[in-house]
Amino acid sequence: MKVTIDGISVEVPDGTSILNAARVIGGDVVPPAMCYYSKLAGSGGKCRTCLVKVSKGSEKDPRPMPKLVASCRTTAMDGMEVQNMTSPEVIEARKGVVEMLLINHPLDCPVCDQAGECDLQNLGFEHGAAKTRYEFDRRTFNRIDIGDKIQLHMTRCILCYRCVFTADQITDHRIHGILNRGDHSEISTYIQAAVDNDFSGNVIDVCPVGALTDKTFRFKNRVWFTKPVEAHRDCDHEKCKGEVTLWYKGDDVLRVTARKDQYGEVEDFICNTCRFDKKKTADWVIEGPRKVSNHSVISSNHYDTMKPLPVVKANPVLQEANKEQFERETRL
Amino acid sequence: MEPLSNKRKAVDNKPLNLLERSYLPAIVKGLGITMSHFFKKPVTISYPEQKREFSENFRGMHSLKRDENGKERCTACGLCALSCPAEAITMIAAERQPGEENLYREEKYAAVYEINMLRCIFCGLCEEACPKEAIYLDGDIVPSDYLRKDFIYGKDKLVEAPLNQ
User: What's the pTM?
Assistant: First the structure.
């Protein structure tokens, strides 16, 4: 089956969505996605950021689709022609979607722990307008502790339902979900029962914004001051592979997350023991520094090697002299 | 060739006459110039007792600002440290506890905020990066000191004095 996206043709199997076909091509033609998650069945279709224009329906029925369609939920047809980057209509619509997603967002990025690896931040930077036109009070909620390790800031939530799907499909029983309807919808636990499951920590990784954050990492450091390092361990849990990213500051592991691919989706879900309890270098086998895109703020001021080469060659005589001088000066 | 200025003087090696050889007129002339300066306004000032006015865009010592209610504006977002080309700024964030709402504006604040004044190049990028209008380089020249460790300025030196004082 042949699909053409922004003039680039690609062969995909039957039943592939437009978004996944675009991901086969890769690069700039991939529409951004806030709610779709390839590892979670049933996700997608909620945030509308992946809207694309179908200029030719298929080989059999070449009429264009009347409206922009959500590429994550629309199946590609043979001979379909799709416009993403090349259509000004799509760019304009996406700008509107970003504005709507940000209407109730508190924009507290300086405080938020997700800043630096936040999908909404990237989306707003790449596709959004610089200013908001919204003048009314934003929706506010108090923050909720879901268990002792996960914190929920409902004010930042964009209702992508990813965490609900994660809880449904990755953990064996779900306690949290969405309460109320429409504008009043809110992620919540039923009478704030703690999410107590071996895989509950994965809701932190799937959250595209800073709504669900790691409480053990809360305000510890900014993401871009930490060094991501790939590591693994033999995990006892049969569903967990134990392959993670450790986020170092100096010699301390500040947090442990699953490895994410270029679309911000985790490669393997990890268990809570790996995520919250193993925060010593001795627990892990280090594989090497994680590759970070040059465009990411996380790569700023980082070195390729774990230990930067010394600027001055280690000279014992010099070191001794420096120590002596330092002691003398401190006495002063 | 056309001279660039009219100050050019041709050198002559004529022997000095008697008056010139006595050097007296030259000494008197030199003393006259010196004396005339006694009655002129001096171009220098005696720093640090007297200080010149800084230009409007002068960048001096940093200060961490408070808002109109006297709360600290800094929320330890780390953007100043990120933008700092000399890596002079470090900070440790902490969470605001209940009852401290009159001290800090946001739920996160900088518990430790240090600037190494020896590293700082006073470029003002931290001021530009700050999303909370918390840091300004509006202070004086950083005073000199004897030890390197004394140039690491903490919050005690950087934060503005509270409003009620």
Answer: 0.80
